[in-house]
């Protein structure tokens, strides 16, 4: 399924953390690896003389060459085909354009950007790519000390949050593709959103319907997993979705979360769903998001 994998990099530790996951999936699927560095020239073109332009952007271009060479060298050391490129432009737009041009099947990127301010929130480039990409995006987060979380190189356990929507089903299909390759255990989770429903005051019939909907949604994912001969469990919870999902992840040994972006149309773009954004920002394990 994933035959072409794109690894955008800015040379930061956050970007480097994603390389191991990209290489692992690249080997599993015998995928071609693409390394891309974007020299951020801003949204508006700047009229500069040639010498001024060289002085302004040359350091970033050198850093880009070094960062992309590191990735392609590692890919080739794993007997994978690799390509690299340094481009100028607005980072998220350039990443999406490149992914479209190269018919990329998956984007793998770190969630932390270059600056310290991005340590407190999901970097704007990553968030925009997650919201707007037409292909699955695997985001890999750093710990507070800027070191990647420990990982044994396998995806043995996958959590698939679901609400029964089409986006959740697409995420489940992509997650199960990976789970089948690794013979992973599958955990299907549904959270009855208490920020929408006041369950204490709701009639029992409403509460029963919500729980039944969650049971049906999780069992549908579990059946998809069992059809692939994978072990699957289901869980229905109540609470704030992102909080409950992260608590569940912390209670089991999980290697991957896969969920829909649930973006909605806004002008010429889409917004990343609040639950997905919160999970990606705080998840200790990689999150695969699917539009």
From TrEMBL:
It comes from Natronorubrum bangense JCM 10635. CDD domains: USP-like. Pfam families: Usp. It comes from the Archaea. InterPro entries: Rossmann-like_a/b/a_fold, Universal_stress_UspA, UspA. Residues 1-141, 155-290 form the UspA domain. Belongs to the universal stress protein A family. SUPFAM superfamilies: Adenine nucleotide alpha hydrolases-like. This is UspA domain-containing protein.
